[in-house]
């Protein structure tokens, strides 16, 4: 019996009680969350030491692009979550399609972020222009790397779903866990850089 069709232990509600994905991906996700949490804490400390300077620099960010990027990534998470549901029910064609849509949202996010960076640099808000923009490029740059890596992961997941003899739900779920972490990190970054006053 393959993993895609194998019954899993169910709780009293009849729902699966297993931890989605592979244990190793959870170790990596928790490690990433700790590292980003440290970045966020350092940002907050520096912001508290120069609140007016940070606020003045923050006003140069385009809130509309930040909101659009947030909607794009949350939509991508929805596609990826629906892909996992489709794969669990054996609808692999739909799962592949939804995985590609999640990855396409990631590509759109990268395009929007590239446009935003180019606009800020053209306005003179470069990496060393202020402490705020140093944090801005560092946080969004490291996150952008995670988005690009997540798109690579989505490619592996789609390949896994297209191969009947290699379909492993743990791989599909692990890809989704990583992608949701990337989206969660963006929500925090968006709140810190664009919204918090």
TrEMBL record:
Matching Gene3D superfamilies: Cytochrome c oxidase, subunit III, four-helix bundle (1.20.120.80)
Cell location: Cell membrane; Membrane
A cellular-component GO term for this protein: plasma membrane
Reactions the enzyme catalyzes: 4 Fe(II)-[cytochrome c] + O2 + 8 H(+)(in) = 4 Fe(III)-[cytochrome c] + 2 H2O + 4 H(+)(out)
Heme-copper oxidase subunit III family profile domain boundaries: 1-197
Membrane topology value: Multi-pass membrane protein
Record-annotated membrane-spanning stretches: 23-42, 63-80, 92-112, 133-157, 177-196
Main subcellular location of this protein, as a coarse class: membrane
UniProt record similarity statement: Belongs to the cytochrome c oxidase subunit 3 family.
The protein's name: Probable cytochrome c oxidase subunit 3
Protein species of origin: Mycolicibacterium aurum
């Amino acid at each position: 019996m393959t993993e895609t069709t194998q019954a899993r232990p169910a709780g009293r509600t009849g729902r699966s009680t297993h931890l989605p994905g592979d244990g190793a991906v959870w170790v990596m996700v928790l490690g990433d969350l700790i590292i980003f949490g440290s970045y966020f804490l350092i940002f907050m400390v520096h912001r508290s030491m120069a609140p007016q300077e940070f606020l003045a620099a923050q006003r140069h960010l385009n809130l509309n692009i930040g909101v659009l990027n947030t909607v794009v990534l949350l939509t991508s998470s929805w596609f990826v979550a629906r892909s996992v549901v489709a794969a669990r029910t054996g609808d692999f064609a739909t799962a592949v399609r939804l995985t590609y849509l999640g990855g396409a949202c990631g590509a759109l996010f990268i395009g929007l972020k590239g446009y935003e960076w180019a606009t800020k640099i053209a306005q003179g808000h470069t990496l060393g222009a202020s402490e705020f923009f140093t944090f801005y490029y560092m946080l969004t740059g490291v996150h952008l790397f995670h988005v690009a890596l997540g798109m690579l992961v989505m490619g592996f997941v789609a390949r896994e779903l297209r191969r009947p003899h290699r379909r492993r739900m743990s791989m599909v779920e692990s890809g989704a866990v990583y992608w949701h972490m990337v989206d969660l990190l963006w929500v925090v970054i968006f709140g810190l850089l664009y919204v918090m006053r």
